[in-house]
Automatic annotation (TrEMBL), chain B:
InterPro entries: ABC_transp_permease, BCAA_transport_permease. It comes from the Bacteria. Its main location: membrane. The keyword ATP-binding does not apply. This is Branched-chain amino acid ABC transporter permease. The chain crosses the membrane at residues 6-27, 34-54, 60-82, 94-112, 139-158, 186-209, 221-249, 256-276. Belongs to the binding-protein-dependent transport system permease family. LivHM subfamily. CDD domains: TM_PBP1_LivH_like. Pfam families: BPD_transp_2. It is a multi-pass membrane protein. It is found in: Cell membrane. Keywords: Amino-acid transport, Cell membrane, Membrane, Transmembrane, Transmembrane helix, Transport.
Length: 235, 286
């Protein structure tokens, strides 16, 4: 299968700290690739580095066959990558509608159709259309953040810990929405909630101390108790 | 009553002049996190260029247009050459913009001479008229009208247009705006130029208001603008209007009743706000 995104031996710094030492993975088109690992392993830094928010010091990142190392964040985003950050990145003083309008690169028929689809998927966003982003609940903010990344026709979505801080019922809702999105878009998902990750993901990479240490099919990992315990602390 | 209304109009006119200068400053700080002490330099260049064109052509409108144009141009040059290399470093920003402010100030003396210059309002804005027992000075009403017009237009742009939405979003979270595919540096430049244009507009309006221009007035007046930005809340456009009116009124009333404290009152206002509401009266939501 064709790889949409490829990272080879990527190293990156956050300010003066060497966080990523050797990150390599491939994201096949049409699949959900999950990045797993303990807190502080380098998963969020990996996504930020792909987006150009951290500088790559060594290695290569290619998207749709072209290198994106050294390109600006807005250029990377415009090449077809949507990003849902760990802190959701909601503009607290803008309404739900305005948060979505800022993200919309076009206001054509196709984008309108996508917006309508999103609002059906997340009816709360329609209900609270004129409410400021800062006044939404954690789950609603997460929905808005995902909707904002999905409203444009992106080839790839990078989603960072969508279940973080959410009530179980909201986690189910977010899981369901990502499952629907994966029918149309390739996804890289960073997730600590193994249950959620295993429901959505098709393949996985485990990151430990800034290095990709293990990979395979998600179904295999469920049976691999040793790796789960060793890298994820799950027994 | 007549005295009260007269002082209110004085205060509003001064407030609007400060608002025009502070509006750009607050957006520049809010969006770009840049402490621009060169803002006063753009103000004096607007004042001198506008007055020069006004006196050469006898057209106040052309003077205003020239002031805004020089503001936009100097804004472009300042952002590209002075500000861009020091993004993210407040200490360097203070030093370099303060230095550039002095350069702009000295260049005024080279271009227009070191002496103070008298400025008179255009005929259609000179003088006053009576409403009942109240004397209304035309030029002060004109300044208030310009201030309101700028506030309404800028508010509509910020609220209704896509670029306005991007600027507001950028004030809240620059990184996320970039991650949505928007060239934030281009937005920075446009905001900086607009802020510079407003500073220059404030310069020409203030020149005619005060009746005299001199190279050092930029630094003096920009201190008031900084006070307004702190009181209103850094990055808040409505906050800068509210605070500018507050400062203008406080100055007008104190100048009449306790002249010795007319400047100190603004510092006092800022100190009170910093103690009880350090984020300013209108906090920008993140």
């Amino acid at each position: 299968m064709e790889n949409l995104l490829e990272l080879k031996k990527v190293e990156a710094f956050v300010q003066h700290y060497h966080i990523l030492h050797d990150i390599s993975f491939e994201v096949p088109k049409g699949e959900v690739t999950v990045l797993l690992g303990r807190n502080g392993a380098g998963k969020t830094t990996t996504l930020r580095t792909i987006m150009g928010l951290n500088r790559v010091s060594k290695g290569s990142i290619s998207f749709k066959g072209e290198s994106i190392v050294g390109r600006t964040t807005f250029d990377i985003a415009n090449s077809g990558i949507g990003y849902v950050p760990e802190d959701q990145g909601i503009f607290g003083g803008l309404t739900v509608g305005e948060n979505l309008r800022v993200a919309m690169k076009k206001e054509d028929e196709k984008t309108t159709e996508r917006l309508e689809w999103i609002l059906e998927l997340f009816p709360d966003l329609k209900k609270f259309w004129k409410k400021e982003g800062g006044q939404l609940s954690g789950g609603q903010k997460q929905m808005l953040s995902i909707a904002r990344a999905y409203v444009n026709e992106n080839d790839l979505l990078l989603i960072d810990e969508p279940s973080k801080g959410l009530a179980p019922i909201m986690v189910d809702k977010v899981t369901e929405s990502i499952q629907q999105m994966k029918e149309q878009t390739t996804i890289v998902l960073v997730e600590q909630n193994f249950m959620m990750a295993s429901q959505i993901g098709t393949r996985f990479y485990i990151i430990d101390d800034g290095v990709t240490v293990h990979s395979g099919a998600m179904d295999e990992l469920k049976e691999d108790k040793q790796s789960m315990k060793k890298y994820l602390g799950i027994s | 009553m007549e005295l009260f209304i007269s002082l209110v109009i004085n205060g509003l006119a001064t407030g609007m002049l400060i608002f025009l200068l502070a509006a750009g400053l607050t957006l520049i700080f809010g969006l770009m996190s840049v402490l621009n002490f060169a803002h006063g330099g753009l103000f004096i260049w607007g004042a001198y260029t506008g007055v020069w064109v006004f006196q050469m052509t006898n057209s106040f409108t052309l003077g205003i247009v020239a002031a805004i144009l020089i503001g936009l141009l100097l804004g472009l040059v300042t952002e590209r050459l002075v500000i861009r290399p020091v993004y993210g470093n407040h200490m360097q920003q203070i030093l370099i913009t303060l230095g550039f402010m002095l350069v702009l100030q000295e260049l005024i003396k080279v271009a227009f001479g070191p002496d103070q210059k008298a400025v008179f309002p255009p005929d259609f804005l000179a003088g006053s008229f009576m409403v009942g027992d109240i004397v209304l000075i035309k030029y002060r009403l004109f300044i208030i009208a310009v201030g309101i017009l700028v506030f309404v237009i800028a508010s509509l742009i910020l609220k209704k247009s896509r670029i306005g939405l991007i600027v507001r979003a950028g004030v809240m979270d620059k990184e996320m705006v970039q991650a949505l595919g928007i060239n934030i540096k281009l937005v920075f430049m446009l905001v900086f130029m607009t802020g510079a244009g407003l500073a220059a507009l404030s310069g020409i309006l203030h020149a005619v208001y005060s009746g005299v221009i001199y190279a050092e007035m930029g630094l003096e007046f920009s201190i008031l603008a900084f006070i307004v930005v702190v009181i209103g809340g850094m990055g808040s456009f409505p906050g800068s209007l509210f605070a500018a009116i507050l400062v203008g009124l406080a100055q007008a009333f104190m100048a009449y009743y306790v002249p010795a404290l007319s400047l100190a009152v603004n510092m006092l206002l800022m100190t009170i706000v910093l103690i009880f509401r350090p984020q300013g009266l209108f906090q920008v939501k993140g």
